[in-house]
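Re: that backbone. Tokens:
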């Protein structure tokens, strides 16, 4: 039996999972806690946490994964201007990034004068993976989720930069899987079970349908390497009162990045860097879950 939240209208078949108390979902219940949390204290907790990583690497204090989206401007701005850290930017090339996305990525690098590494997998490998995940998982976006969540970890291990700073943690913001005070960090288990629909690259390799070289770039670093490097991924949304639209509007006024208007939303900041996400991806999602 499906339930629908009377506030946000999400249904119980949300891919990240929702719990209901009456007609209100867990995501909305956790959202209510935003108004009673001492966010100034949370900011102090964040500052103390990141301070211990300064100087571990002589060139960079942290890694920030970016795209050409609006929220990347907010994350980089906060880390540089408020936390006073020296980040290395990393970006996974989804092969679907549009002109707006590439413009905004270049603008971030220029405005903040930061180094950036872009990971590009061969088009043939990406096509092979999409064919496989489309037929087996009903997803054309597996490689994007896998690439965006593995490349920063690979750079962390290879370059000896333990701290990775992400923006929003969707499991808390969307469905209330955790509380804000849980200080949940990015981890392999959550990535596999919720971001990658239960399938790591090793699981796809066992299907023996595409060459091993296509999936090798998506193999997660070993636990031993991650432990030895001390790699940790934290989410700003656990420490700041997260408000995507307000934050993106502020960054737009400040940096004048390019935006993209979609027919199905008032929010000109949503997925501006990837036109596929708001079209084919959403149609497939609608066919599976009943909403896009």
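Recovered sequence:
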């Amino acid at each position: 039996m499906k339930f629908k939240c009377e506030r946000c209208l999400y249904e119980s078949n949300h891919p990240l999972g929702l719990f209901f108390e009456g007609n209100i979902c867990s995501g909305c219940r956790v959202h209510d806690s935003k108004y009673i949390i001492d966010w100034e204290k949370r900011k102090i907790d964040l500052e103390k946490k990141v301070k211990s990583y300064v100087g571990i690497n002589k060139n960079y204090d942290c890694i920030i994964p970016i795209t050409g989206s609006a929220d990347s401007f907010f994350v980089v701005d906060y880390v540089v201007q408020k936390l006073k850290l020296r980040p290395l930017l990393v970006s996974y090339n989804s092969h679907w990034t549009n002109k707006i996305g590439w413009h905004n990525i270049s603008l971030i690098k220029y405005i903040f004068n930061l180094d950036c590494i872009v990971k590009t997998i061969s088009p043939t490998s990406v096509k092979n993976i999409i064919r496989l995940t489309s037929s087996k998982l009903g997803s054309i976006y597996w490689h994007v989720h896998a690439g965006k969540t593995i490349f920063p970890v690979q750079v962390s291990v290879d370059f000896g930069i333990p701290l990775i700073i992400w923006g929003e943690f969707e499991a808390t913001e969307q469905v209330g899987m955790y509380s804000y005070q849980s200080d949940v960090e990015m981890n392999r288990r959550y990535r596999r079970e919720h971001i990658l629909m239960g399938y790591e690259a090793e699981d796809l390799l066992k299907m023996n349908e595409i060459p091993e070289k296509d999936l090798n770039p998506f193999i997660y670093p070993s636990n031993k390497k991650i432990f030895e490097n001390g790699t940790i991924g934290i989410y700003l949304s656990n420490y700041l009162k997260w408000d995507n639209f307000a934050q993106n509007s502020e960054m737009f006024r400040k940096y004048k990045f390019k935006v993209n208007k979609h027919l199905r939303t008032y929010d000109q900041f949503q997925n501006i860097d990837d036109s596929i996400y708001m079209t084919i991806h959403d149609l497939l999602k609608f066919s599976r879950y009943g909403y896009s």
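The CA atoms of residues 62 and 87 lie 5 Å apart. The beta strands are 20-21, 24-25, 62-65, 87-92, 116-119, 163-166, 232-235.
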